[in-house]
Amino acid sequence: MEDEVKLHSFRGSPYGCRVEIALKLKGISYQFIQEDLNNKSQDLLKYNPVYKKVPVFVHNRNPISESLVIIEYIDEVWKGVPILPQDAYTKAQARFWAKFIDEKCIPAVFKVFGSHGDEQDVAEANEQLQFLENELSLKGNMFFGGDNIGLVDICAGYIAFWAGAAEEALGIELLTKDKFPKLKEWCDNYINCQVVKDSLPPRERLVAYYKWRFGKA
Predict the structure, then answer these.
(1) CA distances from 1 to 4, 60, 78 (A)
(2) Fewer beta carbons within 10 Å, N or C terminal of the chain?
């Protein structure tokens, strides 16, 4: 029997996009169910009663929430292109950096846009981004995952694409080539991967959204 795979999300969600990239890497066919966050579907509320958020991944009627958990599940169930490293230590390191991005980097970067480039917020974001710059410099690879994208790359997609759209919308330069040459190069390499290109929302819509969200029409 063919697997039934559904993804509840909305176009433009960086977390839903993570799952789409993982699915495309594995070559998995899936049904995308567009959610309206102002009028959430009964299925979404049923499948994720704790957080009531997207993305929600449903495999043969079994729901899974939280993008990092979903990606690990996909990687375990469907073989082929690996998303997480096979070595136990390297896998643990990938999980560490993915968690760091979610808990430290993304909140710090988002805070810069919310404050329209407050000096202290920029300094804090730069401190967090420097850790990623150092990691790329240390490894000397095209991607965090080596020669191909992996878990950490997928998680850092917000920095590569969403943050760039916000910078354009607000006229803020945060991720500059002078300060973060390796990270900037990684951004270009990542968003030019075909599987990533096929999953990203239109940039102009994100720019318009951030102008509206942060009051710069």
Answers:
(1) 9, 10, 15
(2) N
